[in-house]
Amino acid sequence: MTLLRILLLCGSLCCSTLAQAVPTDDVMALLQHQQQTWNQGDINSYMQGYWHNDQLRFVSGGRFVYGWDNMLKAYQQNYPDQKTMGQLQLKVSDIRMLSNYAALVVGEWQLQQPRGVSSGVFTLLVEKHDDQWVIVHDHTS
């Protein structure tokens, strides 16, 4: 193989790699979907961003919730309607890719509800399962 062919092949591979979706874009799309479905008052669609598994872990307020079903139940109890859910704003500070299939996401959240505004920070472990990025660990304070 000539040097020119090798260079052309390498250039072709680099360009095709750049054309593929960047994992951080997929993770951001997941979080944008989370924010949008929350603001629409759709907890069921919001929960699709979480790993539907008993090993899903949610940490907040000094408490642990394990499992997708338990997390859904807690959300339904604490946010029974769209008015109670209010409007969520997520601000991602950093997405650190741990591998091609895992990312650590750090950011801030703000929730505007009829009773006032609350805010805090979050750290998420996001993994790719069955070609879909999902939150497998959520620590929100």
Which strand order do you get reading across the main beta sheet?
2-1-6-5-4-3
> Radius of gyration from the CA trace?
19 Å
Largest sheet: 6 strands, mixed
Count of DSSP-assigned helices: 5
Distance between the first and last residues' Cα: 58 Å
Keywords: Signal
InterPro entries: DUF4440, NTF2-like_dom_sf
Protein name: DUF4440 domain-containing protein
Organism: Shewanella dokdonensis
Structural account:
With 141 residues, this protein is an alpha+beta fold. It has a single domain (22-140), classed as Nuclear Transport Factor 2, Chain: A (Roll), CATH 3.10.450.50. The chain has helices at 3-19, 23-39, 43-47, 68-78, 82-85; strands spanning 57-60, 63-66, 87-99, 102-113, 116-129, 132-140. Strand 4 (102-113) and strand 5 form a beta hairpin.
List keywords for this structure.
about 140 residues; alpha+beta; Nuclear Transport Factor 2, Chain: A; 6 strands; about 40% helix; about 40% strand; globular
